[in-house]
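This entry is listed below:
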Amino acid sequence: MVWFIIGGGVAAALLVLLLVFTILRFNQLSMARSLCDEAKRQLIGEIRARHALVPAYIGTLQQMTGNELSTIALALASAERAPFGHRGAAAENALTEAVDEAALIPTANERSLTSGPAGAQQPAVNEEIDTTIQLLHGQLQVLTERILAAARFYNVNVERYHRQRMRPISRLFTSVFKPREPFTELAGDEGGPTSARGQE
C-alpha cells in the first residue's frame, strides 16, 4: 500500500513537471514566432522605403541622361511584385545592382560631353542635377545597408525559431507554429550574392 502511494505521488509529480515543461515550451515558441514576425515587419518597412525613393532617383537620372532607364524600372517593378522569401531576396539584389549601375551613367555622359569642343559651356544645372543624383544614390545606399541589417536579424530569428520547432515537445505544436521562410537567395539564383533583400 505504501509503495502504491509513493508510486502514485512520483507519477503525479512527473505529470505536473511534464505539463509545466510543455507550457514553457509553448511560450518559448510563441515568443520566437513573435520575434520573427516583428523582424519581418521591420525588414518590409525598410524595403518599402527604398522602393518609394527609387522613382525619384529614376526621374532625376532621366533629366541628366535622357535615357529610358528601363533596366532599373524593370528591377523595381520585379522587386515590388516579388513574394517575400527567396524570390524577394533575389529581386532586391537585382534592384541594388541596377541602382548602382545607373549611378555610373552621369559620370560616363559627363566624360563624353566634356571631351567635345562645347564641353566647357555645359550649364550649371547639370552640376545641380548630378549632385541630386549623388544624394539620392547615397540615401539608397543607406537604405540598402538597413535592409541587409534587418534581413540578417530576421534570418537569425528564423533559424532560432526553426531549431525550437524541431525539439521533441515542440513537435506537438507544429500545426500551431508554422515555419517562416528565410529571406535569402537560393544558391544559383541570379541577381547578386546570397544576401537578404525583398518584400512581402
Summary: The radius of gyration is 27 Å. The longest helix spans residues 2-65. The CA atoms of residues 84 and 168 lie 29 Å apart. DSSP finds five helices and no strands in the chain.
